[in-house]
UniProtKB/TrEMBL annotation:
EC number(s) stated in the UniProt entry for this protein: 3.5.4.10
Associated pathway: Purine metabolism; IMP biosynthesis via de novo pathway; IMP from 5-formamido-1-(5-phospho-D-ribosyl)imidazole-4-carboxamide: step 1/1
NCBIfam families: PRK04151.1 (NF003167), purO_arch (TIGR01922)
Protein name: IMP cyclohydrolase
Purpose: Catalyzes the cyclization of 5-formylamidoimidazole-4-carboxamide ribonucleotide to IMP.
Domain named Inosine monophosphate cyclohydrolase-like: residues: 2-182
Catalytic activity: IMP + H2O = 5-formamido-1-(5-phospho-D-ribosyl)imidazole-4-carboxamide
Length: 194
């Protein structure tokens, strides 16, 4: 099954996978703690605005460590709003509402999550809805097929395990994955490139 790009979030853990039929020549790189999806050196040139973006960013709000994860440019305004003191629900809703779904041939939904050590929020904006939910267990939302949040059995406990677990899922066209954990020791990030 092809579900496209997707996030999985639960209290203390966030993960994201790029799955793509159209732009498989991408990878995740670490840019000073921000994980960014971008083309590989041998990727064909494109002017598609949805190919490169920050997919995972640590944030801090009132001394609390948070992580923002998502499938596009909305990760940055969500992070900025959190750092200004907005609650996670509001930061997600305002940013997704402002940017709306992707204006491509498929009206691709934007998916995102915000995670702290004890809380998690998952969100999507599609052509027909804006959904933001607090979740107490790992929850998945994808751009296709699973574009409403649903529980997900995530066995990983570390960021590295989560990135690898998402990459290895039996879902079509894996490209790369990123993940983070939030705990007493702060934020740990990891990624896996195919």
């Amino acid at each position: 099954m092809y579900v496209g790009r997707f996030v999985v979030v639960g209290p203390g853990i966030a993960a994201y996978r790029v799955s793509s039929r159209s732009f498989p020549d991408r990878r995740v790189v670490d840019r000073d703690g921000t994980l960014t999806v971008g083309p590989t050196a041998d990727a064909p040139e494109t002017d598609n605005p949805y190919v490169s973006y920050n997919c995972l960013r640590p944030a801090e709000r009132a001394g609390e460590d948070l992580v923002v994860v998502g499938n596009g440019s909305h990760v940055d305004p969500v992070t900025e709003k959190l750092e200004l003191g907005y609650p996670p629900r509001d930061a997600l809703a305002l940013s997704l509402l402002a940017l709306d779904f992707e204006k491509d041939d498929y009206d691709t939904p934007r998916v995102a999550g915000v995670v702290s050590e004890d809380e998690a929020f998952v969100a999507t904006v599609r052509r027909d809805a804006l959904v933001v939910e607090a979740v107490e267990e790992p929850t998945l939302v994808a751009t296709y097929e699973t574009d409403s949040p649903e529980p997900f059995d995530l066995g990983a406990e570390t960021a590295s395990e989560a990135a690898r677990e998402l990459y290895d899922l039996d879902l079509e066209h894996p490209v790369c994955a990123a993940a983070a954990t939030v705990g007493e020791a702060g934020v740990e990030t990891a990624f896996h490139n195919g």
